[in-house]
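All the exercises in this workshop are built on plain-text protein records. Sequence and backbone structure share a record, each on its own labelled line. The structure tokens are whole numbers drawn from a learned vocabulary of backbone shapes. The record below serves as our worked example for the rest of this section.
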Amino acid sequence: MQEGVLLRELNRRVTNGVALAIDLVAAAAIRVEGTEAKCALGDVVELLHGYADVHRALAMPTGDTLIHAATCIRRLGSGMRRALLDRMTIQLAFATQSIALQPERCWHLGLIVHELVMHAARHACFDARAGQIKIKLTRTGALLNCVILDNGTRPARDASDRELRIARDIARALGGRIEQGFGAEFTSIVLSFPLTERERGANWTIATRQMRAPRRTRAIASNDATHASLRSADALGALLSLSHPTDAS
């Protein structure tokens, strides 16, 4: 039996199991007496819905049609917010370009992003600061770059780095690598991997269409981006500069 068939069957069983758990807890919330108990069970239902969203976002795709990676990452991020990050009062933000990937490679990207965001949520020390994690997805030529940036701190090469082994293995399978950067108040994990010939062609077409957009539309977008950058300083450039140490896999 093919590996893909087994994975899809496993996904179906987990999906059905989570759906059953949601139904059982929701029914218990209706039957139970007391406001506090109802609220507690309602929170459990919401938590399970969040994990169900994450599970659906990480399901192995079917078909061979190219997928917009940014859409998948944002859908995954929405599930992670609902399942965990909102409860930890950690804000999740996105800065993504439109990048087309082959389905299986986009799936691999999602698996890595999920692990890196969860890694940051578990191990970043935010002290008295409001926790923030940012996912930045960009394309530079034939290279895709995905940066997970948080405003927490942790020692370089801390013990939690062992948890990134699977993410590093998946990155190597994509022909890429994962690097870590450590700053005084920021930590970054950078995934980069080359696009395939098919992906390069599709993304060249996307970029060409964007360049042909009406000048007025581009001017408005440029002004909006300029004002946004003035309102919120992005420390990513400084963090990834040569002045910050990196740990490359």
User: Anything to note?
Assistant: Helices lie at 3-31, 35-57, 69-85, 103-123, 165-173, 197-211, 215-231, 236-239. Confidence is low (pLDDT under 50) at residues 225-249. The first helix runs from residue 3 to 31.
